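Marked as duplicate of an earlier ticket. Keeping the data here for the record.
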Amino acid sequence: MKPKYHIDKRALFCDETAEYRFPAEPECNQEVTIRFRTAKDNADQVYLIYGNTEIKMEKVESKGRFDYYQTRLVMKNDRVSYYFEISLGRETCYYNKLGPTTDCHSVYQFTITPGFHTPEWAKGAVFYQIFVDRFYNGDPSNDPVDGEYAYIGGHCVQVKDWDKYPETFDVRCFYGGDLQGVRQKLDYLQELGVEVIYFNPLFVSPSNHKYDIQDYDYIDPHFAVIKKDCEDLLKEGDLENKHAKRYITRVTSKENLEASNAYFADLVEEIHKRGMKVILDGVFNHCGSFNKWLDKERIYEGEKGYEPGAYVSKDSPYHNFFSFHSDRWPYNGDYDGWWGHNTLPKINYEDSAQVEEYVLNIGRKWVSPPYNIDGWRLDVAADLGHSVSYNHEFWRKFRQAVKEINPNAIILAEHYGDPSSWLEGDQWDTVMNYDAFMEPITWFLTGVEKHSDQRNDQLYGNASWFFTTMRYNMSKFQRQSLDVAMNELSNHDHSRFLTRTNRRVGRIASLGPKAAGEGICKGVFREAVVIQMTWPGAPTLYYGDEAGQVGWTDPDNRRTYPWGKEDWELIEFHKYMIAIHKKYRCLRTGSYKDLFEEYQLIAYGRFCREDCAVIIINNAEYHRMVKIPVWEINMPENGLLTRVMQTTENGYNVGYKMEGYEEGYLTVQVPPVSATIYTLKSK
């Protein structure tokens, strides 16, 4: 015998968007209205529970299939975590960020942090990541030249063949990409639909990746301007001396450094005039052994205007910037290096208030005039410092320093794992979204890990695992952090997503560079891009992905942009997808709900007052007939949806097609290896 009552759990809904909590990001002492949705006439009572307090919610509206309950809270200074209890007859159900649940653990509860705001411009914004040396060479006169200096056991190399595969050990190889090249391609980026440019490190550094910073105060002249050269120095002296002096003159010359900073300020101004934003990579956990504070390679020793480095002299003013392992002199590499790398000396913040204030001032400097960048991406941010407590203390100071200058600057951290302790409103705004985006999508669509180092066929096409993993990892974010999370498919640390579609395990050293482009599936790549442009967060393109670039993990993922050999069909596809993402508010900041799952198939919805979207991903190699419960995302019982995109294994179709649905369900056939987007504009 069926029970008299049951709660329709698929109808229950609440989240932290402005549709269900307003204002969504309240201030201290501000009143907040919270709404909750149930099926119509399907609850005897709904309670909002926080701490030891239960508030009975009032039914305020019935619309279509749903009833809406509402209550108000007055915020104080403290964070408030809450969940819901729904009862019908003898049945009781709880609801938190995981949805209907029996797990009322506080980590999964909705959260209000009074005064915690993330930048509005970044919510759902389209980012574009540029590894500058490999993007475009706009000014060959600033290129590093063969043998200009020595680094990690060899001399730097000028690569003259733009299409050459990266070396297995690539750090000393320079292809000549620069900021002038970025400037010359701004029209391209605008036409693509880019809203934010994220630069990998730009500061003075001897490597092509520049995560070993030499001087935080200046843009590297090899990326910007070299006005003063020293050809005369090449005519005399021993070879090593000539290399060192040439590098000193080109890179540490105040004339070149100041000219490079001025060029960068002018570039940012032009980017801003085009309506785009700029964020820089902040590498503050460690610097480089070339850094003027350490000067292990003795680049600055004896140079006018520079104090002795900590490696050069015990009396250096920078001595406590680093942790030396002994008092032995001269030093022999016995200092803390990040992951043991002596080219990456770890900064000793706890023992030096001076270096702490210096780095805080760097945070302030670049968001201030004349540079006016729009935020920071923080490299290995959870590693900074020697303790967890200091790490959090520093990032609180950093946020305050940056936000005092520019309250709308974004603070975005590289992080793997649970970021919630940094996302409480007083440290980071958000993170690079590995756990709630890149990793689950890669496993579901390819069965391959993001480095192409592992394969797991149990996760390949596992829709239940995908939704569950996403749900748990998204629950670690407050919504204002999720909306600005950097959703990438590829970046400078992992294999290119298009290469992952070949489902092979390997790297450049084991399989060779050509294998990265063999057996790839553009159809699966298009599915991934559709998810990227329709999932909560800020879709972030890694330069060249949109043009069909491939590559194994670092360094092969840092191939040059394929100018003249672009896959224009993929570029046009990205333009269409970016335009769709920007057209519908639901895709930028709307609510999210999973709707349907089968092996190799997922369907989910995005919705807000203005519009709704249904996304169907069929990763199987056969047609599927699916019946999607679109009523769950507040669609009317019957109506017409507009298909605005359908990809296939061999292409895509952006021609509008109307599709009717009845009694709250959309029944359609979807092709193999496809992604389909249906939309509905509210009247």
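See parent ticket for discussion. The CA atoms of residues 264 and 371 lie 7 Å apart.
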